[in-house]
Amino acid sequence: MILAHAGHEAASIASAWEASPAVLAGAGLSLALFGQAFVRLRRRGRKDHAGWDRAALFVSAVAIGTLALVSPIDYVGEEYLLSVHMLQHVLIGDLAVALAVVAIRGPLTFFLVPAPILARLARVGALRSVLRALLNPWLAFGLWALTIGIWHIPAAYDYALDHQVVHDLEHLSFVIVGVLVWTQLVDPARRRELRLPGRLGLAIALFAAGQILSDVLIFAMRPLYPSYAEQTDRLLGLSPLEDQRLAGLVMMGEQLLTLGTFVAILLVSQHRKLFPAADGRRAPA
To answer: In Å, how far from its chain's centre is CA 219?
Structure first.
């Protein structure tokens, strides 16, 4: 009986692919916008700003975000494991967003929206004002921290799990605030709102804010989320508390990967600007 139940469970997970029309439409629109920007820029002879490495990065970003929402990751995260649900959140709201913003940095940013549409949007004063406010670095950080914090309050988290529309809004909000903060870090449009110390400070602030949530999950003495704590089927044999601690480690590890890589690249780039001769000097034979 136990083996039969385990086999049925594994089969259900393996087949839990759901091609959400909204997710596929969003992925298709993202690829279409990037594709037309990529082609337009290359036709203008700027292949240096529209290389195939950029295309690979952007396609990877869309693939990661889409798979996190349509693959068994979504099913396991909703039905069984908080840690897998956390993995889904950091994939769509951080890793996928970071790769996409890095991919479009430079002129590609300005070609992403077709010119006729961009011209119409530019004439909407209210939209310009909202975007100008949202692109304030510390407002972007505040919105990110507030969004992450509120959605991970147990009552809000469980409510979203039980109401699909709210759950979809939760995911969308993660993507939006992720775009806001990674736009400040990478500065794809070269607005130079933040200099090097500010970008490093924002990266540290993001990690510190995320670490607060990670520490709560890792060091809590009891399960915090009833939806997971009350389950009778324990996937992989993880107890609710072990699963919760793993969720905290997932968030910490993903932030170390993305923000740590960003800081390392930023510092190496700055070193090369300050010491170009030392960077190109060959070691003596």
So the answer is: 25
Residues 5-48: pLDDT tens digits?
445 466 677 777 888 889 999 999 999 999 999 999 998 888 88
Token duo for residue 174: 């993660």
69: nearest Cα among 10, 12, 22, 11: 22
Is residue 144 within 8 Å of 180, Cβ to Cβ?
A: yes
| Burial category of 123 from C-beta neighbours within 10 Å (exposed 0-12, middle 13-18, buried 19 and up) | exposed
Q: Whole-model pTM? A: 0.88
Digit-coded pLDDT (tens) for 82-106: 999 999 999 999 999 999 999 999 8
Amino acid at 184: Q
Contact 47, 39 (CB under 8 A): no
Check residue 232 and report its DSSP letter. Answer: S
Indicate whether 3 pLDDT > 80.
no
Q: How many CB atoms lie within 10 A of CB 17?
A: 11
In whole angstroms, what is the distance from residue 224 CA to residue 89 CA? 18
CB-CB contact of 107 with 46 (8 Å): yes
SS3 123: coil
The C-alpha torsion from 167 through 173 and 178 to 181, rounded to 10°, is: -150
One-letter amino acid of 104: I
- Residues 182, 98 contacting (CB under 8 angstroms): yes
